[in-house]
Structures are given as C-alpha cells and as structure tokens.
Amino acid sequence: MATRSSAARKKPTKTAASRTAAKKAPTRKTSLGKLPEWDLTDFYPSMHSPAVEKDFGKLKQLCDQFRKKYEGKVAKIDGATLAKAIAEYEVIQELVGKLGSYAQLIFAKNMSEPANAQFYQNVQEKITVLSSQILFFGLAINKIADKDMDAKLKTAALKKYAPWLRDVRTYKPYQLSDELEKMLHEKYVSGRAAWSRLFDETMARLRFPWDKKELSSAEAFDLLSSKDAATRKKAALVIGKVLGENAPVFTLITNTLAKDKEIEDNWRGFKQPISSRNLSNYIEDEVVEALLTAVRKSYPKLAHRYYKLKAKWFGVKQLNYWDRNAPLPGDTDSAYSWDAARELVLDAYGRFSPKLATLGKEFFVKDWIDAPVSPGKSPGAFAHPTVPSVHPYLLVNFQGKSRDVMTLAHELGHGVHQVLSAKQGALMADTPLTLAETASVFGEQLTFREMVRREKDKARKKRLIAAKVEDMLNTVVRQIAFCDFEKRVHGERKKGELTTDRINQIWMDVQAESLGSGVKLEGDYKYYWTYIPHFIHSPFYVYAYAFGDCLVNSLYAVYMKGNVKGFESKYMDMLTAGGTLRHKELLKPFGLDATKPDFWQQGLNIIAEFIDELED
Fold first, then answer.
1. Which of 170, 149, 10 is nearest to 83 (CA)?
2. Does residue 378 have a pLDDT over 70?
3. Which pLDDT does position 9 carry in this prediction?
4. HEC-encoded secondary structure of 390-438
5. 417-471, pLDDT tens digit by residue?
6. pLDDT, tens only, 297-315
7. Is 104 exposed, middle or buried (0-12, 13-18, 19+ CB in 10 A)?
8. N or C: which end of the chain has fewer CB within 10 A?
9. Which helix (H) or strand (E) holds 468?
C-alpha cells in the first residue's frame, strides 16, 4: 500500500544531521545572503530523541491491534465497519510517514554522514517489519467482489474513502498471493531500497577535482552553465572522467534493478516495463504513448531547430555538449541573492493568487527550506510532502542563478500543492505523478512571466525567453528522451545483462535523436546517464515532467485567454483535490482533455511559438 513517504530514520553530536535538532534552523551566510537550513524539529527534537522510539512503540501497538482486530475478517464486515477500519489504517500510515519522512530528510541533508545513513536504514527496516503486519488489509480489500463493494459503498461513512478504495482496487488484477506480497514487502529493504541507497551514497561521495579543491556533484554540474567557455569545457571533462571511473558501479545497480523490476512485472502480469508506472499514475498506456509519440514527432521543430539556432548565435555549426545550457553570448545572468529570489517568486505567485503567495511565504518564514550547497547533501532539488500532520519540506542547492530562482519557484509550487491537498488525509493527499508536476510547472511559468515583465531591455528579454525555451526543452524533450532510454535499457535487459558500453551507446543514440545535429555528442558524455536519480528511484517517472509541462502550457493558455470564469478558484480546487480525482475530472472545469489527440500538440505549440519569436 502506498504511503506519502517512500522511505523511512545518545546524545546529539555536532554533525550536519544534528544541526536539525536546534529549535531555530541556522542560516548560512554567503555572498548570496543568508541561506536558510530547514528546521526538522516539527518532527522530533533530534534523531536521538526518546520521542522517536516512543512513536515506534506506538506504531507497533497500533499494528498489533489492527491485525488482531481485522485479519481474516475484512470480506465479512459491513460498510460502516470497513470505514472505521480504514480510518484506523490511515492513522497508522500517518505515523509510518512521519517516521519515514524524518529519516529521509536527515539522510538527504548529508548522505555522507555514517550516523545519518545508519539511522535512515534502521528506520526503514523497522517500518518494513511493522507494516508487514497490516499488509493483509489492502490485499483483503481487493478480494472483495465488485458487487459486494458496491453495496458497502452505499454506507455514508465509507463514501469518504471511495477514491482511496478506487485506487487500491486498480491493482486488483496484478495482485499476487498474500504470501508473495508479504515476501516482496519484507525483502524491499534488502533489495531495491538497498540498491537505491548504494546509488545515493555513491553519488554523494563523488568528488570532482577542480584546481586545488574538490567539488560536489551539484557544484560541478553548476559550472556547465558558467559564462566562461573554458570553464564549461573543463567541468564537462572532469564530470565525464569521474562518472566514467564509477560507471561499473552504476552499471551493476542499473542491471540489478532492471532485472528486479522484470521479475516482479512478470509475476504481476504487466505487459510492458512502463505499465506499472502508468498504473500508479492511474493513466492508460495509450494516453502515455500518445504523449511520447507527440513529443518525438516534435523533436525537429523544437530541440533540433532551437539548438541549430543557438549554435548560430555562438558562431559555430554545432554546439559542444557542454555548451547546450550555456548562457547566450553577451548574457550577464543576474546574481540573485536569496532575498531577491524569494521576493521575485512570491510576487509572481501573488499576482496570480494572493492566497497562493501567502501559503508560499510560510516556507520561508518557518524554515521549511534547505538552500545551501554543502558536502554530502542530496544534489538537485525536491519537495517532500511528508505527512498532513507536519508539512512539506523543500531542498534546493541555491547558487544565485536565474535557473536557481526558477527551481525555487518549481519546488515551492510542489510545496503549496502539498499543503492544500493535505486536508484529504494521509491516504488521499498524494496526487498521481502526472498531475504532481502541475503546480510546480505553473509556478515556474508565473515566475518566468514576472521576470519578463520586469525586464525593460529587449536583448535581455530575448535571453530570458531563450533560457525559458531551454528549460522547457529540458522538461519535455529531454525527459521523453530519458523515458526512451529507460524503455530500451529495460527492453534489452530482458535478453541478458547489459555492459557499460552498451548502456553508453543507448544513451548516445537517444540523445542524438532528441537533440539533433545542432549538438556535438562525443567523448565521456556517454557516461552522463549514470547521474540521473530517477532511473534508480522511480523508473519511468520522467515522462511525468513532460506530461506536467504540456498540461500547464495548455492550462496557462486557457488562463491568458480569460475564457474560464473563476479560473483562480478552480485552480485552487484542483490542487486541493489531491488524489481524490483523476486527470479527466481535474481538467474538465478548464475545458481540457488529455485523451484528445490535439491536447499534447497544443502544449508543444507553446514551445514552438517561443522559438518562432526567437527566430524572428
């Protein structure tokens, strides 16, 4: 059964982890201003606190009571009793999510700290053991005949949980025996979770030599967007060399997890490797395939055309791969302080919805964001929904660039979405991944428009539009190429283990197809597949970004046309719905339908129009 957190975590010591024990989170002074570090005491005073063990004791008691009360009886109880059982189950899941989220956030703060990793692993193992006692509940729900469930749902108390029951029973055709389900559940912590942890810790330990110091992956990859061409090239070669040296480990992880997925998919009866992801997103295979096909067909008029145009601006026939995200010639990317970034993002949100801005402001005021780049910290950015009884937390690696501002706007969109949907409770607050990107991409769009509105210089506006196009290409074209990469890797893995060279070749092929002849792909770029965490943590997640971007492009077009009365209110209702509604129901108030062939093209046309503007 899915929960809101995918992972679970003596006296405090002066480590990166124990800093979270302070009641007020520290801030780190840099040239960017004071960068906040999150305060996790809304969970527990520290990972050594007796409150952690107290909650584990409570969780054990609740699981024991639940099993004794309902195991072997679910099929026979009436609707009112089933509603009561689900409410008790939700309390357990809330506690599981609280413990798991706390451990995951401590680990993300510094994955190189042994104490953090140990706590994270121990929490995962304890949760796995305890939650295995209540695994029977979801399995038993799926054994209830449809006509019997329909009869139970006539009970008023059970109707509240109808969306959750709908989603649980989606897995009914793919459910295995109780014994197998319990075995898979218990082995997760020593199987997929262990390999994912190996990936995380390996990435966190990587150091990239730079002059007389060593950089983290976040710092190294940031240099690829430097204004200095020599710096970009040097960074690209250093990154490729370090990733290449560690490629055998990443190859082993990839092969193992792909085989693990194949075995489970075969037992469950999924037709394609991507099908289980589609099911978890509650979206049909054919809708996803329509998206993939539409984006692939648009490669020439989007990525191919844009990168040829960018090469022309650089005065070359082909861009080197390290120049793909380079600032345009003459670009002087503003160095945003943290305060300036916060003001810009909140102002952009406020112009659309004062309520949205008010919700967003809480993240800054209450230390729900961790912003500095630091050794061992999880690279990239994320928004963790945690549990409704606490609140979301955001992690970014802020370095003052316009893209960092857009990343902040993106993750804040996730955050306010999660705050709004929390009222649905631990079982129904989560939004399918395809719609989970809606608020984040919409927040990016609002912030981009605010940047353009403030900019008076025409040349600077051109550069802003070009940067936005690149972000959209990274979100749509690049993510669909990632999805193609996964499809090919998982497809070939069925025939046997893949060598590093073969995975490298698949990577280079899909990159060439998507980026076109405007970008020169060579050398150690072949190893760049190794650092993508989504391939490891959530196979086939990546198409959700393209889904969200195209959806938001269409949604924003509706907003700009002003032909939907009460757009802001309907938008807030969509976010508040969480996982209670499917994509068709959520989009209907805006006159949009993702099942229609022209839906995806409508979103892709927005990107094409920006490129048209740049060409003109």
1. 149
2. yes
3. 28
4. CCCEEECCCCCCHHHHHHHHHHHHHHHHHHHHHHHCCCCCCCCHHHHCH
5. 999 999 999 999 988 777 888 999 999 999 999 999 998 888 888 888 998 999 8
6. 999 999 999 999 999 999 9
7. buried
8. C
9. helix 458-475
CA distances from 564 to 327, 381, 440, 569 (A): 37, 33, 21, 11
What is the residue-wise DSSP string for 475-486?
HTHHHHHHHHHH
Among residues 265, 549, 283, the alpha carbon closest in space to that of 431 is found at: 283
Q: How far is CA 289 from the centre of its chain?
A: 21
Query: Cβ(213)–Cβ(390) under 8 Å?
Result: no
Q: Other CB atoms closer than 10 Å to residue 589's CB: what's the count?
A: 17
For residue 53, give the amino acid letter: E
- Give the residue from 445, 320, 338, 328 showing the smallest Cα distance to 394: 338
Helices 438-454 and 402-421, axial angle in degrees (round to 10): 140
Q: Which 3 state secondary structure label does DSSP give 337?
A: coil
pLDDT at 167: 93
Other C-beta atoms closer than 10 Å to the C-beta of 128 total 18
Short-list 60, 51, 69, CA closest to 132: 60
Cα–Cα distance, 316 to 302 (Å, whole number): 19
Length of the chain measured in residues: 616
- Residue range 18-190 forms a domain whose CATH class is mainly alpha
- 10, pLDDT greater than 60: no
- At residue 386, what is the residue type? T
pLDDT in tens, 88-143: 999 999 999 999 999 999 999 999 899 999 999 999 999 999 999 999 999 999 99
Q: Pick from 7, 45, 140: which is nearest to 86 by CA?
A: 140
